[in-house]
Input
Amino acid sequence: MNVSATSDSLQTLVVIGNGMVGHHCVEQLIARGALERYRIHVFGEESRRAYDRVHLSEYLNGRDADSMALGDAALYETESVILHLGAAVLEIDRRHREIVTAQGRQAYDKLVLATGSYPFVPPIAGAEGASRLVYRTLDDLDLIREAAHGARRGVVVGGGLLGLEAANALKSLDLEAHVVEFAPRLMPVQLDEQGGAALRARIESLGVGVHLSRATQDIRPGTQYRYRMRFAEGAPLETDLIVFSAGIRPQVALARKAGLTLAERGGVAIDDFCRSSDEHIYAIGECAAWNGSVFGLVAPGYQMARTVAAALCGETAQPFAGADMSTKLKLLGVDVGSIGDAHGATPGARSYRYIDEAGAGYRRLVVSADGKRVLGAVLVGDNSYYDTLLQYVQNGIAPPVDPASLILPQGQAAPLLGVDALPASATVCSCHNVSKGAICDAIDGGCADLAAIKGCTKAATGCGGCAGLLKQVVEHELAARGVAVDKSLCEHFAYTRQELYAIVRVGGIETFEQLLASHGRGQLGCDICKPAVGSILASCWNRPIQDPRLVPLQDTNDTFMANMQKNGTYSVVPRIPAGEITPDGLIAIGAVAKKYGLYTKITGGQRIDLFGAQLHELPDIWSELIAAGFETGHAYGKSTRTVKSCVGSTWCRYGVQDSVRMALDIEHRYKGLRSPHKLKFAVSGCTRECAEAQSKDIGVIATENGWNLYVCGNGGMRPRHAELFATDLDDAMLIRVIDRVLMFYIRTADKLQRTSVWRESLEGGLDYLKQVVLEDSLGLCAELEAQMQLVVDRYECEWANALNDPEKLKRFRTFVNDSRPDPDIQFVQERGQPRPAPARVIPIAEEIS
Output
C-alpha cells in the first residue's frame, strides 16, 4: 500500500483510532460535508469496527459483539471512507506526511490522532497470564471469561470507576469478587471520604470484598487458590485470576516517536482547536492533553471530535474549553453520582450532607461561600437527585433559601426543578452537546416524538444517562406548543395502561382478541401490549394464567409458571404463608429437592427456593409438592410474592399482637393478585420491626390498640421507606383499607410501575391517597372492595389447574418431538449442592475446525 495523498482533487485525511471518539469524529466529518474535500482513511488496531465501550460489561452478560457496534457498517463501505481493521500504525513520518503500517505507507494531508489510552499495570513481580488481565476491550473480556473457567475467586486491582465495573463482570461470571485499592477509599477521584464509605458499605453488602490502602508487592503461587497476592501492609489475599484496573495512560507512543510535543503528565499537547505542535496533526479523546489535563470520559472526547470536524471542514469551530466531568453511574447495581466541584475545593465553599447509615446512603451538596451558587454534589445510593442538581451547577441557577432541601429525602426535599425553569442554553445531553434550545429547535422543525428527537439530535444515544431528562423536556415542550403528547401503550393501543384497565373493567372484556378488535389496531399485538393486557385481565378477572386466552400474552416465566435461570433451568417456589411451615412440609420439600437434585435456598421472604429444575421436570415436581399441601408461590409473576412476619405475641416477649396469624390472613387473601409490579408485604408484632415492614409495599406493625399501616415502600435498586398511612386499625378495618389501597393502585398505576413510584406520581401525594381510601372522596371505596373480593373468590392454584389439563401440560417439553432432557445443561457441585457449570469457552482454533 503506497498511496499518494493527492491522486485526485480530494485531500487525504487519516484518522488513527476507531474507538468511540474516532468513530464520532468520522460521523461528524461526514455530517459536515467533509467527503466533498477529503478521502478518509481510518486505521483501527482491533479486528472489530468501533463499538460501545461504555456498556462493555453487557458483553459478559450475553450481549453479542455485533450488537455493540456503533453506527451503520455502511458508513465505512464507500470509496470515500476506507476502514483498515487490524492495521496497527507503526510510525508517523511527519517529513513526508505519511503513516507506516505493516501493509505499507499511506500519505496524508491532515491527520487525526484518536489512539485513546491503555490500562496501566504496575510493575509487580509475578503478574503474568491470568494474574495480569485488563478490562478495556472485547478481546480483554474474552480472556477474562476464559480465565474464569473453573475459577472460584477473582480480584480487581483498582477501586475506581472501571475497577468496580470489572468487579461486577467477575460476579456475572459466578466468581467471588474482591477489589483491592491503593487509596483509602473507593472512587477517590469522584467521591469524598464519606461517599466512599457509603459506597463501600453497599458494595460489601452485595458480597464483594473491599480491601483499601493496599499496595501489592508481588504475586506468588497460592495454596488454596491459584495465586497469592502479598501487600506492603495487611494479610495476603489468594485468588484464581487478577484484573488490573489501576488507571489509564494516554496512548502516545506514535506521537512521542514522531516528535510531537507532549504534556508534562502525558498526552499529546493540544490547543483550543485540538491542534498538536504540528499544524497538520490533531489529537482528540484520551490521547490528548488540553492545558495539561487528560479527560477520561466519552463526552469530552466527543466535544473535541466536533471541534476538529468543524475546523477540517472550514467552519467556525467552537473552541474546546475543558469539559464537565460530572458522572452518573450504576456500579454493581449501586447508584453513584459526582457533579462539578464534588470535593468542595473552591475557596470558601460550604457543604451540606445527608447521611443514612442504616441504608448506606449519602448525599453532599457543595455551594459557594455566599450560598448563591451550587458548585457540586456527591450522591451514593440514589441518583434521582442527579438531573436536577446537574442543571443547578451547569446553568448557575440560584438554589432555594435553604440549599439543604435539594438533597433531603422525598417529602422533605425542595420540589424538583421543572424543565420549564431550564434556560435554552442548558445542556441536556453532554455526550453530544445537545442543549434544551436544540431540542426545541428540532421540535419546531417537525420532530413530534422522542424517537424523532433522538434521531435528529442524537441526544440520549451516547451513555444514555440523560434519557429521563430528555423525555421530560420533549413532553413539556410538545405540550407547550399545544401538541397532545402521545402516551399510547404501543402502536396497537392508543391508550395508557390506566385507560385500558378502565376499558376492560367497564366493558367486561375478558380476552386480548376482544380488546384488540374493539379498541386496538392490527391483528397480533406486540411484546409491550400482550403482557400488559394479560396483567390487566388477570387483575380484573383472576383467570388462571394458563387459560388459553391468556397464555399467548405471557413471557417465559408466566408461560411455564417458573423463573428461568441463567443456564436455562427453572426455579420452583412453593408458597409458605408468613414463613410458617410444619415439619412434614419441610420434609416434603427436602424430599423433592433431593429426588430431583435441586439447589435449595431459604430466601429473605421466608420461603424455600428450589433451583435447577428442567422444563420437563416441572409438572412432576409440582405434582409432589401439591400432594404435600403446597401451592404456587407466584415467584414468576407481577403479583403478590411474600408476606414476611416475626413470631409476634405467640412466642416473643415483646410482641403485642399475633403477627403470624395476621400475616397468614393477608397472604391467603391476596395470593394470586396480579398487579402492575410485584408486591411484597410484612407484618411485625411490635415496633421493634423484626419483619422489616417499613420497606414493603404494604407494611403492618402491631400496636397495643391494633395495627399501624404503612404503604408504598420497596427495596431494590432504589429503596424507599413506606409511609405511615393509618394507625390503630382493628383486624377488619385493616383488611378493608389494604383492599382499597391495592385495588386503587392496580386501577391507576402505569405498566411495570412499583407502588413507590406510583405514590410519588400521585398529584396531591399521600394526603390525596388518604382522602380517596380513608375518606372515600371519590365514592370508590365500596367498588374497590367489591373488585378485590371478586379476585379473592376466584383464586385457584395455577399449577394445580395446569396439572389437571393434559393440553396445558404439552408445553412442558424441552424438545417438541422428544421427551429427553436438555443435554447442554450441566451442573457442578459446590458446598454440597448443584450449581450451573460455567459456560465453556471454545478456543478459536477449535471453533474454526
